Amino acid sequence: MFKSLRVRLAITAVVFLVALYFLLPTLVTQIPSPWNNYFPKDKIHLGLDLQGGMHLILEVDADKALESMMERTANDLKESLMDGKVRFRNVEKATGATISMELTDAGGKPALEKILNEQFSDLEIASSTPRDGGQIVHLKVKDKRAAELKKLTIEHSVETIRNRVDQFGVAEPEIVPEGENRIMVQLPGIKDPERAKNLIGKTALLEFKLVDEDNSLDEALRGNVPEGSVIAYGAREDKAGGPRGQAPYLLKNKTLLTGASLETAKVQISDRFGEPHVSIKFNSQGAADFDRITNENVRKRLAIVLDGVVHSAPVIQERISGGQAQITGNFTMEEARDLAIVLRAGALPAPVNILEERTVGPSLGSDSIRQGVMATLIGFVLVVIFMFIYYRLSGLVADSVLIINVIVLLGILAGFKATLTLPGIAGIVLVIGMAVDANVLIFERIREEMRLGKPPRAAIDAGYSKAFLTILDSNVTTLIAALFLFAFGTGPVKGFAVTLSIGIVVSMFTAIFVTRIIFDYFVWNRNVQKISI
Amino acid sequence: MEFIKPGTHFNFVGKMKIAAVISAALIVVSILSVVLHGGLNFGIDFAGGTVIQIKFSKATPIEGIRKAFAGINVADAVIQEIGGNEVIVRTNQSMTKEFQAKVEEALSGQFGAGQFEIRRVEFVGPKVGKDLTNKAILAIIFSWIGMLVYIAWRFEFRFGVGAIIALIHDTIITIGALSLLNKEFTLTIVAALLTIIGYSINDTIVVFDRIRENRKKDLKRSMGDIINSSVNETLSRTILTSFTVFLVLLSLFFLGGPVIHDFAFALLVGIVIGTYSSIFIASPTVLAFKSFRISKGKRKK
């Protein structure tokens, strides 16, 4: 290929130096200034299993988002029907994401269709059956629109989780959608996994609802919940760790304001008791709404509901026009801080479930690194010694390129910002064992050729050229296996596939190309009669 | 130094029948073991559940740990010691916030707070488990097909068939060995199986390559003869490479830590089986498909 020794040597040197260039930040903890400006800053990126951290697979319940949208739509639809003077009974959200209603007039259906066309273009009539001169109608969201909504829900969830994680302060988090309705979250080096899980998984839907004071709570608790109201609980463990205070509330169904109208939220310490609470500030539209709501409902109780749990239900003393409010409750400082974060970042559009969790503590990670490095070193030394014993000086040639192989492999990992995992380290160890294979093939060939009586130079030529195709074919098949491993594997296993693949490719370069330079150098320039092989 | 002296000539093809019997026996034992164990011992990656790795500050009897878990109604906890005062607890429970709190409470009650550290928690829900199982099976089958196509392209179709039969053979026997020792079948084990597939084919190809070369030299020689001398000529290399890989795997097995332990074990078994199959199974199988090639050739005329 390249006849000139110098050219080949230069290529090898360039590859080696480039690898070293990318690897240097990993090898040297602190590059002295001014040199540090010339080198990349990134060390080899360690997987969660090596540096500790949390890996989560979340499932977004997008159907739930659709259902709650239908619930809101049902309320709006009721008002539109009333405005349009269409006579109806029982408009309600039925099972799944559908709305059922009964139209009592014969002319109800065309009127409904008109309203749908004008105001609710997302909806269509799924079925209608005549009854008592009127009709029972089921409405559903158009399929195309429903798919769009689901997609938006996932995107919005990813965005919200990213906001929360950013505000929580995690270095290099990874938050990516996966498949149809899943999100993968990776948080390296997280210290308090439980807290992080709470922060990510909380829906954080903040709602303001009026307390229903016209009807009896006791009556409702007995099962007679009046139309348009619901029972909600203020479930909070009190500070003494006593029984959970499950104070029931009877709330009006209608949500007056949600967390979507917030501009910001922050933790404050109340002057009197030194207890933390979360102070919220509405955006301009929210402030105007809040002004109107408080004005219309002075002396009534306004419940602050978070994810269905009533946090407090203070009496509105007077009209509040500044657009400020407080959420109190027996918060610890940490809880208040996290609540402020999720309120700032916004609510998740749908609840999320944790499908998979893998958390590794930092101490286990550093143990793994130590064991991995140890296994690599010992494996390396064993192979080096064996190759020297078996092939003598030629073995040493193979050994020296093995070092280049490992350095180039690590350099590529660093340069391409690939992730090194524990199975990845196992992959490196395996590569050390397999990389010498190419040299074994070549050396065995050379020995064969020499047995046939060829002089060293001819034997080396024949050995390399005959072994080349074998090495290529056998490595390509190993690469195919590694490729499938990469395509189907997850997390750490993927790391194994990466180091194995890179290692195989690099070993072909070092074992064929680089060793040849060494052989040629010694054999061409001298009149060698015998090679140590 | 030479392990295999030049001019060595074992009659591998002649031993084909014995090899077939041994392999068949190993495969039967493997399948029986899996069946008698009631299927593979799937880890949480596939079966779902929770794994907790706990390190204690001093030597802790396993009975005490079991009691702590029984106290919070985790009757199915499987506790495995991995040395260094560390245990791995596995249960089918889902890892919820409440469950983790209960575990920590129970351990604190039994051993005192600060006497232990939860170093690793892995939870896989049943839905994910199913996905991962499908992915793993697909990965292995696709890799077989990938090999078949590549070898059929670079060599001949029957070489591909021989290689794939050897690969399926290796995969089954390695799984059998894991099942016999009741080792957990995890994602890393699947990675090991794919690596074995990649390695074993590597070995096989080196022999095939030599067969291809020897055939070009002398077209009249019988296929059995060619295969025999090709296996012999590459025997030294086959054993050498297997040996170096074996060396590094031993290092991984003993020093790589608990997470890598079973992975290294599966590879050790696989390398031995893969080396055996490359010599005794892959090439002779090509011979068994000889007639296929001849009839195809006749049709062309």
Question: What features would you describe in this structure?
Answer:
The complex is a heterodimer of chains A (about 525) and B (about 300). Chain A has about 525 residues and is an alpha+beta fold. Helix content of chain A is about 50%, strand content about 20%. Chain A folds into three domains: about 5-50 and about 360-525, Multidrug efflux transporter AcrB transmembrane domain (Multidrug efflux transporter AcrB transmembrane fold); about 65-145, 2-Layer Sandwich (Threonyl-tRNA Synthetase, Chain A, domain 2); about 200-360, Gyrase A, domain 2 (2-Layer Sandwich), CATH 3.30.1360.200. Chain A has a four-stranded antiparallel beta sheet with strand order 7-8-2-18. In chain A, α1 (about 5-25) packs antiparallel against α13 and α10 packs across α11. Mean pLDDT of chain A is about 85; it is low at about 240-245. Chain B has about 300 residues and is an alpha+beta fold. Chain B has two domains: about 15-40 and about 130-295, Multidrug efflux transporter AcrB transmembrane fold (Up-down Bundle), CATH 1.20.1640; about 50-125, Alpha-Beta Plaits. Chain B contains ten helices and four strands, in the order ααβαββαβαααααα. Chain B has helices spanning about 15-35, 45, 60-70, 95-110, 125-155, 155-180, 185-215, 225-255, 260-290, 290-300, and strands at about 50-55, 80-85, 85-90, 115-125. Chain B has a four-stranded antiparallel beta sheet. The longest helix of chain B has about 35 residues, at about 225-255. In chain B, about 45% of the residues are buried. β18 (about 350-360) of chain A pairs antiparallel with β4 (about 115-125) of chain B.
Q: What is the count of structural domains of chain A?
A: 3
Structural class, from helix and strand content of chain A? alpha+beta
State the CATH class of the largest domain in chain B.
Answer: Mainly Alpha
Under CATH at level 1, the class of the largest domain in chain A stands as Mainly Alpha
